[in-house]
Amino acid sequence: MPSALYDGQVMHQRFGGVPYRFQYRVLGLKIDIDHFETEARHLRWLSLNRFNLISVNTADFGPRNGQAWREWVNDFLSDYGIHTPPERVELVCIPRVLGMAFNPLAVWYAFNADDRLIAVIGEVSNTFGQWHHYVLTDQGQPLDGESQILKTRADKRFHVSPFIGMNSHYEFRLAPPNEHYRLFIKQFEDGQPRLLATQSGQRQPLTDANLFKAFLRFPFHALKVLGLIHWWALKIWLRGGRFHRTPEHLNDIQHSHSEMTLCSK
């Protein structure tokens, strides 16, 4: 199957006045958006838009308004200069387990007919029900160079952690999902390193046996992710971390998007 599981790990390391470091295992799912519906029909423990041990709800990602993913991707990337629809689009995300999920970051990868990466959409969600898309394109030209490791930059346009201000930018290192999945994000606040976040994973075939094993490893996955986010937020606050409220101009904006810049190929 084109889609696959990733048995992975997330690491966060904070620098500055209230440093910390933690890591946890994470269940990732790579979805080929054009084939996933058919794939899910042949699997006992995975479903699309209905309850199962592991499931995916189309309203959790992308437009979140009922529009089909493929139609949304084509229209969205057209606004960023890619007028020929991608040949293939993959979404790497955290699936629902027992109907529950929270995705701090999901990433869409778009490929042309030559299987070259032409767009990346980083979908960031906060705990306030808002989400933002950071978009990387080069007018439809391939993004990947000889190493296939992309280095990108984006100014912070979306309020996520209340303990990091908006005067920040991100530097990303990423590659198309393959046998291994790797993503590195470094955040700078006022020009100083503030946070390093990494996600990695080993590909596993999308089979019923692997899905059931994944469920046994991650039965309360969403609660674990949300619990860790709030636990470390509490520890930062107790240690004197500066609290930043959501900027007033972002309070009533449920969804937004902005551009990432390709640093090198």
| Side-by-side strand order of the widest sheet | 14-9-8-7-5-2-1-13-12-11-10-15
**Number of helical runs?**
4
**Beta-strand share of residues:** 35-45%
Overall geometric form: globular
- Going by helix content, strand content and strand pairing, the class is alpha+beta
User: Element order, helices and strands?
Assistant: EEHEEHEEEEEEEEEHHEE
Structure summary, number of beta strands? 15
Largest sheet: 12 strands, mixed
Describe the structure.
The protein has 265 residues and is of the alpha+beta class. 17% of the residues lie in helices and 40% in strands. The chain contains 4 helices and 15 strands. The chain has helices spanning 36-41, 69-78, 208-217, 221-238; strands at 4-14, 20-32, 46-48, 54-56, 88-93, 96-97, 105-111, 117-125, 131-137, 150-155, 168-174, 180-189, 192-205, 255-259, 261-264. The protein has a 12-stranded mixed β-sheet with strand order 14-9-8-7-5-2-1-13-12-11-10-15. The longest helix has 18 residues, at 221-238. It is globular and about 50 Å long. It starts with a strand and ends with a strand. The model has no long low-confidence stretch (mean pLDDT 90).
